[in-house]
Amino acid sequence: MKILVINGPNLNMLGIREPDVYGKTSYGQLCADIEAHAAARGVEVELYQSNHEGDLVDKIQQAYGAVDGIVINPAAYTHTSVALLDALKAVGIPAVEVHITDVSRREAFRQVSYVREYCEMTISGHGFAGYMEAMDHLIQRMEDVR
Ligand code: DQA
Q: In the prediction, which pLDDT does 145 show?
């Protein structure tokens, strides 16, 4: 069982970026937490971060036939990208949308999510723990269909 965890623009700046909003913990630490969780749950995980929409589309396309589930925090592209939604629909891999902050309590322009239409679940405002919850959902789902 393999899970791909995708992070969009500026999430590589976690720890530096608006610490009052996103916290003081680094992207490297997030990756370490995700890898430790995957190891504890006995699943393979691949981490990918890009600031470029097309690269994120390419990564989703490359996941076709190669991964069982996708955890995606599209960051700002959440609110703008039909291309990411279309890529997820194209590959048809079960996916969960994650946001570190509670986007429902933030600016009006953050209230739209294009990928939400495809994702099985959205986890918003649970901090880094949201990524682990998303992985657990995908693992449970895969165990259920076995
Ligand atoms: C975010 C929320 C987005 O609105 C924002 O553009 C981000 C991060 C989050 O994880 O809370 O970059 O996806």
A: 81
| Residue having the nearest C-alpha atom to atom 6 of ligand 1 | 76
The model's pTM is 0.97
Residues of the chain scoring pLDDT < 70: none
Task: Count the neighbouring beta carbons within 10 Å of the beta carbon of residue 24.
Answer: 10
**Is CATH 2.40.160.60 the right assignment for the domain spanning 2-145?**
no
Q: Is the CB of 76 under 6 A from ligand 1?
A: yes
> Position 12: which residue type?
N
Which residue carries 């048809």 as its tokens?
Answer: 92
The CA-CA-CA angle for residues 61, 81, 55, to 5°, reads 40
Q: For the chain, which residues make up each domain, given as ranges?
A: 2-145
Q: 94: CA distance to ligand 1 center in Å?
A: 21
Render the burial of 44-67: b for 16+ CB within 10 Å, e for the rest: ebbbbbbbebeebbebbeebeeeb
Q: Pull the structure tokens for residue 21.
A: 């909003």
